[in-house]
Amino acid sequence: MKRRNFLINITAAIGGLVATKAIAKMGDNNMHETMCDTNSDKCQKGDDMHQHMNMGMNNNQMPQKLLPTSALPQGMSLPTLANLKNESNQKGVFEATLHLKPTKVALTPDLTTEFWTYNGMIPGPKIEVFEEDHVKITVKNELNQPTTVHWHGLLIPSDQDGNPQNEIPAGGSLTYEFTIPKGTAGTYWYHPHGHNTVAEQVYRGLAGTFIVRSKHDPLASIPEQHWFFSDLKLTDKGQIADNSMLDWMNGREGQFVLINGSYRPKIKIDSATRIRVWNSCSGRYLNLSIPNCDVYLVGTDGGLLAKPYLLTEPLLLTPAERAELVIMPKQTGTVYLQSIGYDRNKMGNVPPEQDIILGELTLTKSDPITLPNTLNHLPNMGPAVAHKLLEYTEVMDMKEPRGGVLFLINGKRHDMSRIDLKSKIHDIEEWTIFNNSHMDHNFHIHGAQFIVQSHQLNDKKTQPEYIALKDTINLRPHEKLTIKIQQNLPGLRMYHCHIIEHETTGMMGQLMVE
Ligand SMILES: [Cu+2]
């Protein structure tokens, strides 16, 4: 969004205009951002903070006209993610190049959209390596702004992990080099992590998958699919829309959710299938419902669970979370893959959450398979020797042009020159993260996979139902989450909310591991 438009918005907000707008949800009749007035039942939110937002933070941009969802073809076969080609013929070495560049993509014969891409692809090419491989990826930045590549979830040295302090200038290039540690097979991804630019670079298309395989994978014999979810917001001219003020406040949600770059694809499941799932959306929470199947959760962000866990409810995947599932169709037929409406307590006048259709599953009933009882040996982390407390808060600030709300950690905005916390290398630490705010936020930290110990909400403390390796986890409003974490490499690590608009506007801190 242009600076001039921000100023117009702010001036109008102070002038006290009452019309606010809400972003239309995916649905065939809601193709533009609708106007809602503050008295409408549909738009009303009850509590104090939301009232604040309604009175002081009206969203006074001209409504953006969005492309009707009927303009994109749907029901194509799920595309396979293209691999990033290994240019090395040395055993155990993965060497490749990623070019970041503006790329015109023909979404239909009549509609060409300019994305920012890795190697011209939406999503970026899939990187597949084995544990202990040596990875050498040269990134050429042909954008007109700096960037970095963050290897989300991987346990690699901090100076190779795309911190905002290590930007690749416009026109520059950098070679990232790291070795994948043993025992870290899992489902990762890569995306930009520069200073102040992440939201735009991600919503313009920059993200890709990174799979680390084990040579002793207990599920290797099961056929595998990849579902990479991303979000796309297009103007009525078919171009990538700027963030609205509501996007900056709540995290961006577009009118299209794509799987592997395809809108509402058809997905065939004709036997027990292992599915790796990524939520790469900027702000959208996915609450996945897979009907007429037994769905086992077998892995999370950082690898396989200790044992399979049969899901009895939709799987909530907040931005940046991943999961590995084994799906066994119980009936033959066609069903919708959906995200069930989940209220994450957005600010401002927004319509109620709805179920949305993500794709169409063509199921063939097949004999169930028996999954191994033991999938992984997860670390027993032992007693913590240090404790840390993080508090998320939200504060209104009309001087903040991107949404008028500051999202803070321990009362502070991200400052690249400030060390917020220090940890001793290899120490087992217990962190308590307190979401002292009115909306859901998630927590992501670089350089480690943590294990959740407990959730506390309204004085009720619960233990997680399964032990899992996580680098990103959701917090409900006023929830206190306790994790155990160990940083095993020295250097600077970021931690932040992964609603990318919140991260970009400063809901991020810096940990120094020494
Ligand atoms: Cu957040």
Structure description:
This protein has 514 residues and is mostly beta strands. It has a domain of 128 residues: Sandwich (Immunoglobulin-like). 7% of the residues lie in helices and 40% in strands. It has five helices and 33 strands. Strands 13-12-11-15-20-17-18 form a seven-stranded mixed sheet, with no helix packed on it. A six-stranded mixed sheet has the order 24-23-26-31-28-29, with no helix packed on it. Strands 14-22-21-16-19 form a five-stranded mixed sheet, with no helix packed on it. Strand 12 and strand 13 form a beta hairpin. It is globular, with a radius of gyration of 22 Å.
What's this, in brief?
The protein is mainly beta and 514 residues long. The protein is built from five helices and 33 strands.
